[in-house]
Amino acid sequence: MDLSYMKRIKFYFTMLGAWPYKELYGTYKEKPRKIPLRNYKTLFVLWIGVLLSGVLYLKSHIRKLSFFELGHSYITVFMNFIAVQRVSTPIMKSYRRTVVDFVLKLHLFHHKHKSEYAMKVYQQVHRISSLFSIFLYILMYVGIILFQLMPLYNNIQSGAFKATSHSIENGTRYEHSVYHYTPYEYHNFGYSVIFIINWILVFDCSISFCTYDSLMTLIVFNIWGHLKILKYNLEHFPRPRTLGDTNSTNSIMYTDEELKNVQALLKENIAHHIMVTQFMSQASKAFGPIMCFYYLFDQVSGCILLLELSAMDMDAIVSYGILTAILLQQLVQISAIFEIIGSKSETLKNTIYNLPWEYMDVENRKIVLIFLNNSQKPITLKALGMIYVGVQTMATIMKTSVSYFIMLRTFAEK
């Protein structure tokens, strides 16, 4: 927990009331940090209210605004929906157990001492994780600032702050990053209140997107490291040698003493493989709903964002360009890294079969057979146990989003 990217994750999860302080207290002796109104139950109620407000705004303005103008609210309502789902995730025991097991068991920090290669892989994963975490949160803050300041700039340009009335008809309607239903007209003071509230909402929504994605990515990086270590250990499995003979091809069978070492190494590697597969099974229960709703969100919002960007003016590019880049980057990032794990686990089957089982006795051959049988199932994550998280699903979402964009663009022009 002294690693910079782990501190960063912990800080933002604390802001969402989602860090499992209670479960980690036995190890770190750190009491929960209680920030007023920052527990997941309060945030869940808050985001339900924001979601309902956005839906009511759409209902009351659906005949007053063009599809392009309503597109912004459609995107924010869908983002609100994802935020509701994510702030409620800490309710799940599987989520809290997954975070605890990642921190206390799976992280390569606990395995780096086992060999020189393990230390090498740990340092590689540590560098990748640090750079990735910094890149993601810089992108997040740039997105927050542009998403909030662009409507403010448009309000200044349109003269909304100087107008005595604010309506859609005379072009002096206030622009917001997130639109809320209000039963009456408001002026500059009301705008200022909504502007400040939106800063908080946009920040919370951004960290709910980025921090959960960051956690899943860090978990995948570490699992990838475990698979690399496991494959290396199997590829460098000791071959049998006759007494005083350094040529392994002259050996027919392992000696009795070598067989004891072989059995110990096989059990150690099987235990390593089981730890990874069991953790991924647990992570699927914790993050499966997140990925299912996230894929649904990408499917819907992708075509709307493309439609908004199709205006090809500076306002659209600044307002939606960074948001589109962040969402697309997260979709590609999550799908690609889970695909890497799946392909890496596939190579284990051949590596296990290439073990020198022909030199072993019957008992150890049975152990190798069990190991080979266990490795047939790829290590991957399923969204709600149905949809594989990977590049193929990502490509399908992108293709469908483009098709829907073309259809919506044709409809908007008519």
Automatic annotation (TrEMBL):
Domain of life of the native organism: Eukaryota
Main subcellular location: membrane
InterPro entries: 7tm6_olfct_rcpt
Location of this chain's protein in the cell: Cell membrane
Keywords: Cell membrane, Membrane, Olfaction, Receptor, Sensory transduction, Transducer, Transmembrane, Transmembrane helix
PANTHER family in the record: ODORANT RECEPTOR, ODORANT RECEPTOR 19A-RELATED
Lipid bilayer topology: Multi-pass membrane protein
Membrane-spanning intervals of the chain: 39-58, 70-87, 128-150, 189-212, 317-341
One Pfam family, short name: 7tm_6
Family statement: Belongs to the insect chemoreceptor superfamily. Heteromeric odorant receptor channel (TC 1.A.69) family.
Protein name: Odorant receptor
